[in-house]
Each structure stands twice: as C-alpha cells, then as structure tokens.
Amino acid sequence: KARLAGGTGSTADALAAQAAQAELANRLDQADATIAAARAALARWVGAAAAQATLADPPDFTRLPVTAAHLLQSPDAQAPLLDWESREDRAEAALQSARASKHPGWNVDLSYGRVPGLPALATLMVGVRLPLFPAHRE
C-alpha cells in the first residue's frame, strides 16, 4: 500500500500483497485448528488436565549440539557417513557379480552306475554356459 501511495507500485502489487497476507492468516488459522484438534484427541486419551499442559520451547536450531572443532576432528564418525563402508561393500559385490556374469560358467559332472546283469556305466558331462544375449536375460 505504501508503494502504491508513493506512486511506485501498481494496484496489482497491492492486491498481491493483500492476497499473500490473507493466505498467511489462513495458514496460521489452520495450524491453530490442528493444534486444537490434537489437544482434544490427547484429552480423550490422557484426561483434560494433562492435555492442557503448555508445550515446551522448541529447540534452538541455530546452534550445533557439538562444537565445530569436534565435527572437523572426526568427520568419518558423523551419522551420514557411518553406513558408507557397507554401501561401498555392496557396490563392490554388485560389480563383481556383473563382471562374473560376462564370463562363461563351466561345470563337469561324473557319474557311475552299475545294474545287475548289465555292464558298468560311467558318464562324464562337460557343460559351458555362454553369456549370449545378456540384454534379454532376466
């Protein structure tokens, strides 16, 4: 409104500012209604006196819980990096599996059988699995 009165703004700017203000007011009212509904549900379960308790102050997210020197001293012990070694191991195993699927697989089977009245039978089988058409395999 001040820019409009000063001659630098347009009526569209003033209306947009009023619409944004109304939207923020609606969001605040919605948050208050959500809190009231949550307190009513809490009162149903734990009693009205416990539901009227005041909320604790929110934590201060502008400060780190530990000093910056501690963070720089042990970056590998930070939570986002703790599972990195297992992720590397899984990736290495997947890489080795992919490499192994490109090479043929050999197998040899030897069997011996004897049936009364017939000569003894020995069988030797050699098999080779060739990685043909790998794009069409499941």
Automatic annotation (TrEMBL):
Record-given protein name: Outer membrane efflux protein
